[in-house]
């Protein structure tokens, strides 16, 4: 009887029979007790290689929320490449759209460069035309025949046509050929903006030719040029000018 009492007294909650009695609820060495984790899986204790509550697994989690698609990808909306933010107007490729001030400054820079280039080329050609036409008229004045004077007038007019064609060619090269592929003139490079196609195609000669011809055509309409420049202020969603409509283009802001 005394032996049974001794064994019962040594068997507390969380103790094994025969183990020393260290007090109520205190686990003993090598024996699991109340609140003491074991070497196997327990409540709330993740084990190696076994999924637990709230622990991500290598496969999908809850239905409809696969683990690999938690949140938006970094590349979405161009945030990794361009740094665009949520709610900022952007092109279909995710790049933020250029603001009106950047586009205006780029246009002014291009206008100065193109105007200076055309002025130099036109001035040189005008001098050559004057020299040639003057020589022809001088030769006709010394002749009794009026045919020489008529020929001189025709040649002078043809030379002016050549001057105009060359000036148009310079403008064409600057607005169409030079930015081909990059969508950037010198002004746009300075302001870090570029023309892109809304279908994400290459900005080729045809695209830039449509933009250039649209600008020229709108220039012949009273207040057409002004309306073209201001159109982006209310155009949605891509802030296009009127000359962007036909070629289906927009202007984006580049990173950096």
Automatic annotation (TrEMBL):
Amino acid composition bias (Low complexity), ranges on this chain: 53-80
GO cellular component, one term: plasma membrane
Membrane topology value: Multi-pass membrane protein
Keywords: Cell membrane, Membrane, Transmembrane, Transmembrane helix
Presence of keyword Membrane: yes
Cellular location(s): Cell membrane
Membrane spanning stretches: 112-138, 150-174, 212-234
Residue span, RDD domain: 98-246
Superkingdom in the source lineage: Bacteria
InterPro entries for this protein: Pra-immunoreactive, RDD
Keyword set includes Transmembrane: yes
Region (Disordered): 1-89
Protein name stated in the entry: RDD domain-containing protein
Organism: Virgisporangium aliadipatigenens
